[in-house]
Amino acid sequence: MSQPLSNRLGDYPSRATPQYAQGSSANLADILERVLDKGIVIAGDIRINLLDIELLTVKIRLLVASVDKAREMGIDWWEHDPSLSSRATDERSLTEQNRRLRAELNALRRERGIPEVDAEPRAPSRPRADRDDDDAE
Amino acid sequence: MTTSSSEPVTYAYAVARAHPDLAASLTGRVGVTGAPVRLITEGAGEEGAGEIVLVVSQVPAADFGEAGLRRHLEDLDWLEAVARAHHAVVEGVAARTPALPLRLATVYLDDGSARAMLRSAVRLFTERLDHLADQVEWGVKIYVEATADSSGASSAEDASEPAPASSGADLTPGRAYLRARRRQRNDREAAYRAAQEAAERVAVVARAHATDRAAHRPQQGVLAGDTGENVFNDAFLVPRGHSEAFRTEAADAGRGLAGVRVEVTGPWAPYSFAVPQDAPPDTDTTTGAPTDRPGTPGATDPPGTPGSDGDGNTGDAGNGSDSDSTRDGSDRGGTARGGPP
Domain range spanning residue B199? Predict the structure, then answer.
């Protein structure tokens, strides 16, 4: 991905100051990873649709966990979520769109045995140790 | 299931050891929707009678029924409010008496049904509360700070636009760029090595003071903030008597290490240790407990073995994701056993 989510969004509105921190610096990420991911799971009477809760957990994990990982999995819901993507600038969106189109193009080319185009624009691009060495020559 | 949306339902926060002052300490405290927090006490005559309580409050079925939850859980503002309120109740209880936090949104149709759950796993809860008595959870996170010249930037992606190097003024722009880029990469590698060193120091502190350890996923993304890359995020179970020493020594793990920041959070209620770390999945640990409600006792779901792979490779941010996908699988299996009778 071209930009970390945190940079694209700036301060998410929900990052309010902790109201209940008692002896801990309880930020929301720390709380969510505990109340959603830890603690005892006991079947209640209200059956939360498991698919829903798992999708939710995926969403929350994207906020506290690896965005790159999610993108590898093909999850990009935030790009369609107005509340999360509204702060993304047009320029960044275009860069990202460009990158994805190239990736799709290459996938098609690979299928048909056609040489691939550069997967990403040369700069700015993600730093990669192996490519840095090439550049330095 | 069907619920009339006008009927309140019972939201459960934690199982706790009964304490004479607990009820009084919860006076005036409200739950996730503003209703008072109450205690459900397991009735007399049973094994462990009167020793454990379930901390609950009433919530509207409209908001916490299936449809309501499905709708609300997509709303991050709603989720934050409920998560913070849930956490506040858990903390209030844990400050007074040993407590096992329940996962967010554990909801019963009424107090009777919640009490039946409590009764069905008295032995399991009692044993775990015994184990956790006088211990607290501390979180330790290690961050690799963004390199100095990327001015507040937070991740590796930002290294793609290095600031012009002042020392490279006599170089062509291309060479100056490459030199800056290489130096930046070297700085990051050094910082990762330093983070590894900090993680090893934390492990030493843990051996001296902690009794258990649970790996959490490194935090990245919006909620993790923009203060560096989180490469280590573990929880430790620490006896109260060692609590201050653990906090102080763990916080000191980054001393003298450039580009590394260590953050200690807590004390937390033992969220990460409510279920034994080494419990194999699908093992019914409630042997001897009444099992009149199918799915209930066994549904206490061991979260995989997140603590077992934490040593030695703590500098690798990718670890958490891999082990967590395994955990997801076991969660799914465990939770699927539950549901209404």
Answer: 134-156+185-341
